[in-house]
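Subject: Sanity check before I submit

Could someone independently write out the structure tokens for this chain? I want to compare against mine line by line before I put it in a report. The sequence has 345 residues.
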Amino acid sequence: MNNPLITIGIPIYNVEPYLEKCLLSILNQTYQNLEILAIDDCGKDNSMGIVRDMQKKHPLGHLIKILKHDQNMGQGEARNTIIKNATGKYIYFLDSDDYIEPQTIDLMQKEAEMNNTDVVIASMRIVIYETGEIRPAFTYPSRMLLTGEDDFPNLVCQDLRWHVGITSCNTLFSTDFLRRNNLHFSVRKDEDALFLSDFYSEVKRAVLLPDITYNYVGRKGSTMGNQARDVIPVWEIRERFKGDKFMTERCDRLRERSFYDVHCARVVKHKFRAVCVALRHRKRFSEKLSNQEIANELKHPARFRDILKFKRYRGFHMLFYTLSKLPSPIAVATCYVIGKAMRWV
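---
Independent answer below. Compare away.
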């Protein structure tokens, strides 16, 4: 068995209370041929002081390399910095307020080396920061090895349910796979969903593991759990719409693939969720969000003649294609009624 260098990349921005536990979970791995890239994304607390202190005092602190952005660029761009600068054979993304189990990297790299994978994806759990309560998150029922041409994409696109976790964390990526396919993060909000939409179709060899290797820390101020604010900056929903526009435009590259109908349906479902988010929080945005902006989010990713050929979810596609052609006030009002009925608004 080889002993490849693994790059663990951590975007760091205002995570002082959580960062020491995150770093120790890396430095105390049973597998130690590591390169740790700590991306300083220009936070305002003492997070980077903790990193520098760990560099000096921990026996393996020399594994930590700090890369500093000139200004705050967000988690997606921090991960792009990791992809650009990694020297490891594999890259593992870890959010700086989460932590991993001691055997995480050892377990995943063995699977990657043994099976020459593009990705190894393991299971995770949620740990509530305030109480320590453990909640279930995305887990795989058993180990799966996927090596056929479209085995992994077809698993993702069985139907509209989630069969693979959407987070880029807790996945061991082949560095060559990411760079060869020019995979990167494109937006500041909902970046994981767009990244998954880009990368899953290119995966030729994958292993999914039932082992829980990652602890996602649920907390009030996290980027995934901060919708309880009285005022929400309108740029956040506009950035999500921007990412969904990219996702829509990129669908066409998959037109000849067997899972194109379900891929488009998943994109439509994702976009409709974004519309429902906009409608649910509309009165709390810092600026007015127009009907036209919301209606633009409904643009269907497929052509009408392609929809007629779809074997799966044709009625679903027809509904949302029709919605996208309505005048914006009518389209938004219809989405509100549908969203209310589904309890998404």
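---
OP: Matches mine. For the report I'm noting this point. The mean pLDDT is 94.
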